[in-house]
Amino acid sequence: MSEISPKEKLLSEGQEKFESLLQLINSVPPRKRSLSVDTSERDKNFRDVMMHLYEWHAMLERWYREGMSGDLPSIPAPGFKWNNLKKLNERIWESYQDFTLNQSIKKVTLSHERVRMLIESHTDEEIITKKYYNWTITTNLYAYFAANTTKHYDWAIKQCDNIAKFVTEQKEV
């Protein structure tokens, strides 16, 4: 039995977790999927979580596009540093409040597929070798890809599980 490669692991785990996330949302009755949780947390409903994932996919795609063209991308975003992620994530949240859950699922499903295609376009060596690409600075593509897929999907599943528990307990009005 051969060992699974880092690329294959990233692709399979990412797909499995993304599908689990969608199944979790789909397990909630349709009439309750757009309900919000009464919380002080930033993400109050499934749409908020899905648009958060979508925007981080979009940022990864921008980093990748700029980095592969020889530029040094502004990571995480222009005008933001890693130490002010809370402010960046709040700005992301604010910018997607007019989207529906269905729109958010379509957008994140498409961005998930685009990120998968980026991963598929690389060899294991390109993905796991630190500093293989100048724009990844001291790390490797794997770290960027994993942070924006498998690890982020783990976070999203936890968020959506809490939301699902809350909204399914809500009485019909």
TrEMBL record:
Query: What is the residue range of the signal peptide feature?
Result: none
Report the superkingdom from the record.
Bacteria
Cite the Pfam families for this sequence: DUF1706
- InterPro entries found in the cross-reference section: DinB/YfiT-like (IPR034660), DUF1706 (IPR012550)
Identify this protein by name.
Answer: DinB superfamily protein
- What organism is this sequence from? Terribacillus halophilus
Q: What is the lineage of its organism?
A: Bacteria, Bacillati, Bacillota, Bacilli, Bacillales
